[in-house]
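USER: If only I could read backbone structure tokens as easily as an amino acid sequence. It would mean a lot if you studied the pair and described how this chain folds. Here is the record:
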Amino acid sequence: MGLGPMQVPRWIQGPFPTPAAGADFTIKPVGQGGILVKTVRFTFTADAVVGNRSIRLLATDGTTVWWETDLPALVAALGVVPVSLFDGATPGVAASGLVTLALPLGGLWLPQGHSLVSLTAGIDPGDTYSGLAGLVYELPSGPYVRMDPTSLVYLEAQE
């Protein structure tokens, strides 16, 4: 009896699907067991129609929100705001205008059925999210594999 296909953890770096103008974005596991989100970056560009928008990022299973963070300030009409999320970040706004937000230490674990979504209050059809990218660690699942990045591991030195 031979070995079947093996699912292995892998790093995925690069762009996430960009939403249409006037829509929020969603990042979710595709394929295997879940993803550990290490970094996310994007730029939000507001059009001139609506005065102010507030942006909130949520981790949810579709019913319950179990993690959230907000941009520290409203985005004004015609505003362009670059945003970077990573674990260990100090939330704030740099002189360059870059907004940094903190992910949980170690990253944000999204099992199958869960997602990281933006929720933009006051979003207008001309508002856009662009440059949506990041680094995630995809973990396998299946009948012969179980990996949970939040589990404690016991290691013992052998002499």
In short: The chain has one domain: 10-146.
